[in-house]
């Protein structure tokens, strides 16, 4: 049975709150990733096929918002010829 979009959104609300709390506490990045994995991972069968693109957009947006992507950290080097 698939989760509703509201149920999936609630996971992201919880994840945002947890990541904000952990950052405020000065926790290491590994701790943030543990929370991310615990709260964002759901079986693919739990996300309706019509909501999968939306789901992945939320996953990536959350990662960017909390500095968990290369782009959000500014670590990419642009070595153009």
How would you describe the overall organization of this protein?
The chain is an all-alpha fold. The chain contains 4 helices and no strands. It has helices at 5-24, 29-40, 52-65, 70-73. Helix 1 (5-24) packs antiparallel against helix 2 and helix 1 (5-24) packs parallel to helix 3. The longest helix is centred in the first third of the chain and has 20 residues, at 5-24. The termini are far apart. The model has no long low-confidence stretch (mean pLDDT 86).
Q: What structural class do the secondary elements suggest?
A: mainly alpha
* Helix and strand pattern: HHHH
Share in helix: 55-70%
- Low-pLDDT runs of 5+ residues are none
Let me know the average pLDDT. Answer: 86
The N- to C-terminal Cα distance equals 51 Å
Strand content: under 5%
Give a quick account of the main beta sheet: strands, pairing sense, barrel closure: none
Number of strands: 0
Task: Please give a quick description of this structure.
With 81 residues, the chain is mainly alpha-helical. The chain has helices at residues 5-24, 29-40, 52-65, 70-73.
